[in-house]
């Protein structure tokens, strides 16, 4: 009986591992259209560098405690901008090449990009007021 319950619990867990991460990943919040996970270098080029809208790029890692605090905070504020800015999430362990290209030496590192160029950047955790100022400067509000 205990084995059957354990198996049922195991089967009800969300899929994990390399096969579960394929395809585009979206959040379930209202910001799902404005926040996306970068899949590869070509996806980054298409959706970030070539974006007609400003993009906030969150370089993070699964093992990074401050990233787990900053990420949701930043996603919430980007969603409040109602499509004026996008947010790309880049896991540095999956996309080391992008981290090297954009000189990410610590996480979290957040870039503000406009027309394919980095126009602002910060490293570490910020409070909501600082993040709002960062976004307003990016979108020119």
From TrEMBL:
A GO molecular-function descriptor: protein-disulfide reductase activity
Superkingdom, natural source: Eukaryota
Record keywords: Disulfide bond, Electron transport, Redox-active center, Transport
Any Gene Ontology CC annotation: mitochondrion
Pfam family of the protein (one): Thioredoxin
Keyword Electron transport appears in the UniProt entry: yes
GO biological process, one term: cell redox homeostasis
Residues in Thioredoxin domain copies: 24-140
Family, per entry: Belongs to the thioredoxin family.
Name by which UniProt lists this protein: Thioredoxin, mitochondrial
UniProt source species: Struthidea cinerea
């Amino acid at each position: 009986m205990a084995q059957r319950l354990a198996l049922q619990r195991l089967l009800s867990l969300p899929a994990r591992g390399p096969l579960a991460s394929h395809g585009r990943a979206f959040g379930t919040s209202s910001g799902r259209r404005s926040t996306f996970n970068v899949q590869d270098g070509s996806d980054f080029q298409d959706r970030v560098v070539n974006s007609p809208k400003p993009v906030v790029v969150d370089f993070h890692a699964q093992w990074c405690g401050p990233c787990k605090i900053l990420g949701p905070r930043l996603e919430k504020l980007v969603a409040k901008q109602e499509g004026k800015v996008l947010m790309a999430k880049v896991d540095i362990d999956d996309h080391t090449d992008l981290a090297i290209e954009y000189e990410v030496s610590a996480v979290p590192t957040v870039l503000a990009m406009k027309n394919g160029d980095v126009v602002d950047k910060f490293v570490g955790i910020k409070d909501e007021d600082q993040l709002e100022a960062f976004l307003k400067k990016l979108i020119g509000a």
